[in-house]
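Please, structure for the following, as tokens.
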Amino acid sequence: MEIGGLTGFALNLDDGRVQVVAEGRRENCHRLLDWLRSDDTPGRVDGVTEIWDTPRGGYEGFAIR
């Protein structure tokens, strides 16, 4: 899945969860959330928790850490 216009990262946490920080247009962030809740992800997603905040910037592109 390609969602243009987002910057940030995805990080595998030690407890098996994945932290995703994404900044961009709200519409693109919602597309990312919809995809994460779909059956089309590369891994198993048991749940998605959203936390919206003021964009902080400082990201170049979208990285997998």
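The radius of gyration is 12 Å. Residues 24 and 56 are 11 Å apart (CA to CA).
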